[in-house]
Amino acid sequence: MTDIVLNVIVAGIAAALGWTARTYLWKRKLNRKQAFFGLPDNAESLLVVNREATGGPDLTVTRHDVSALLELSALIKDCGAHAQIVAHDAAQQGFGERTEFCVGHPAPNRRMAAHLASLLPGVQVNSDPEPGPDRGAFLIGKEQYRLEAGRSEYVLLARLTADQGNTARPVFLFCGQRAVTTQAATRYLSRNHERLARKHGNSTFVLLLKVVNSQAYGPDVVELVADVTKAAQTPIPAVVPRNSHRAS
Q: TM segments (predicted)?
């Protein structure tokens, strides 16, 4: 009888220690995730998206943007935080107060365009409405990345804090050449945030991703092209046109 009681006590202690260890590891993992996203318990965050050109006052978004928002909403919920969805032209706050996830192309998304101009002056996006080989291309520093619709498309995934210190809430940008690429970037973040947190900590980074053959694979096949943080933050020098006047 004594042996049985001792075995029960030992089993109980082992179970309690195992539960304590699992709880500790889970809590540490959650804390790292919350720190990376700037989302402590019950924090508020913004999901900023394009407003479809419907002509009405209602917020209507594309199918791919809806999928992107679902990916991000799951991450926010896992952190024990809350999200508010707002249209790009209704987000009127600065950055650093609440974590922000900004999704879309800068042409229809004013908020994205403002973030690129303020925080990533080394990035230019060709928004020419006329067809041409450079339409939709990214210029990052001296490198150009052209759009091949359905075959090879690019998207920027960035975590930015605007040099406001560790207490500032980050801004996450998902700036893609097409809607399917922004969904691909949010999925990439969802699948790789632990690895990104280990590599970059809670600092700024800008990654260039390539979505391969989206016409066949949708947003699922994504390649990391390069870490373009330095180039994206360095202003592109203005090109001074040559004097075309002829001397008399």
A: 6-25
Residue whose C-alpha is closest to residue 97's, from 161, 147, 54, 175:
161
What would the DSSP string read from start to end of 3-46? HHHHHHHHHHHHHHHHHHHHHHHHHHHHHHHHHHHT--TT-EEE
Task: Give residue 136's pLDDT.
Answer: 86
Give the fold, CATH level 3, of 38-233.
Answer: Chitobiase; domain 2 (3.30.379)
Beta-bridge mates of residue 155: 176, 209
Neighbours of 33 (CB within 10 A): 17
- DSSP H or E stretch at residue 216: helix 214-217
Tokens read off for 155:
């998207």
In the chain, domain spans: 38-233
Res 212: pLDDT: 94
Amino acid at 246: R
Whether pTM > 0.85 for this model: the answer is no
Q: Measured between alpha carbons, how far is 25 from 27 in angstroms, rounded to an integer?
A: 5
Three-state secondary-structure class, residue 49: strand
Structure tokens belonging to residue 143: 């490198």
Specify whether the CB–CB gap between 153 and 179 falls below 8 A: no
pLDDT in tens, 194-236: 999 999 988 999 999 999 999 999 999 999 999 999 999 999 8
Each residue's pLDDT tens digit, 77-114: 999 999 998 888 777 677 778 999 999 989 888 999 99
| pLDDT tens string 60-73 | 567 888 889 999 99
> How are beta strands 123-125 and 99-103 bridged, if at all?
unpaired
The alpha-carbon radius of gyration of the chain (Å, integer) is 23
- Residue type present at position 240: V
